[in-house]
């Protein structure tokens, strides 16, 4: 994971700059939240032999799963999607590119993020999402984020979409 740390820090710094410039004062932003990278850890990608880091990027306007590949060769082009399988479910990640960060893929979890009263509650939900995605259960796949969040609601940990 050490190799990912600089990339994760660059991602956080880049989005902190975006929050302070392009997104500053836009009504879509939740002023109770700040940019934070959460739970990045080594993971397998959607293609055979593909490695990288999966975690969550929290911003005042969204919470996204982020795939940072060890090698950008197989990434979806910006604006195009690619399917990742996590904990028996299929999730569509969209290709993205930001100056300084390079190319990566993201999957929207919450956008906008007004349901969070503060940074701690948003971070707790992000950590719960990652914990559920990393359980490794292998069930029939359904392309649904609703099922993921329905589990949190049943446990009193969040609100289903």
Automatic annotation (TrEMBL):
* InterPro entries linked to this entry: NiFe-hyd_HybE, NiFe-hyd_HybE_sf
Q: Which branch of life, at top level?
A: Bacteria
Q: Which family does it belong to?
A: Belongs to the HupJ family.
**Which NCBIfam families is this protein grouped with?**
hydrog_HybE
- Put simply, this protein is called [NiFe] hydrogenase assembly HybE family chaperone
The source organism is Sinimarinibacterium flocculans
């Amino acid at each position: 994971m050490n190799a990912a740390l600089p990339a994760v820090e660059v991602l956080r710094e880049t989005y902190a700059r975006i929050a302070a410039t392009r997104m500053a004062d836009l009504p879509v932003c939740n002023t109770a939240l700040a940019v934070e990278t959460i739970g990045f850890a080594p993971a397998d990608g959607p293609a055979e032999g593909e490695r990288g880091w999966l975690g969550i990027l929290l911003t005042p306007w969204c919470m996204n799963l982020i795939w940072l590949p060890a090698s950008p060769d197989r990434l979806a082009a910006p604006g195009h999607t690619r399917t990742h399988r996590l904990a028996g479910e299929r999730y569509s990640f969209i290709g993205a590119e930001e100056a300084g960060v390079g190319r990566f893929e993201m999957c929207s979890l919450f956008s906008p993020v007004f349901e969070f009263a503060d940074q701690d509650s948003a971070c707790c939900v992000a950590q719960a999402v990652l914990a559920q995605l990393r359980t490794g259960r292998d069930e029939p796949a359904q392309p649904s984020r609703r099922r993921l969040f329905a589990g949190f609601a049943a446990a009193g940990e969040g609100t289903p979409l």
